[in-house]
Design a protein that fits this description.
Shape: globular
CATH architecture: 3-Layer(aba) Sandwich
Number of domains: 1
Number of strands: 4
Oligomer: single chain
Structural class: alpha+beta
Largest sheet: 4 strands, antiparallel
Number of helices: 5
Helix content: 40-55%
């Protein structure tokens, strides 16, 4: 996803999520202008992103994500892909990415 994220980063807004994020299984990452904020996985990437966007007062929202990217990935491979991306990207809001 690192190279994918550089090519296909979308605005983290309701309209952009609806237009660009699929209601399909996959992994996704949120970023702001300075860093990767969060890497996650879901059966429905679009619904997961909408849930993050509408959850006020969370650590993730406090990091002010402005963009997202995603990669379609079936359930059996998602967890391993997320773990690799957390190690590679060190997102600020994934617990394992914390020092």
């Amino acid at each position: 996803m690192s190279s994918l994220g550089k090519q296909n980063c979308f605005s983290f807004t309701p309209v952009s999520i609806r237009q660009n994020a699929p209601p399909s299984p996959g992994v996704y990452a949120l970023s702001n202008a300075r860093q990767w904020v969060f890497v996650g996985e879901a059966d429905d990437v679009q619904a997961a992103l909408r849930a993050h966007l509408s959850a006020p007062g969370t650590r993730l929202r406090a990091a002010l994500p402005t963009g997202f990217t995603f990669e379609l990935c079936q359930g059996s491979m998602r967890r391993a892909r997320v773990e690799r991306l957390i190690l590679e990207l060190s997102p600020a809001c994934n617990d394992r990415a914390q020092p």
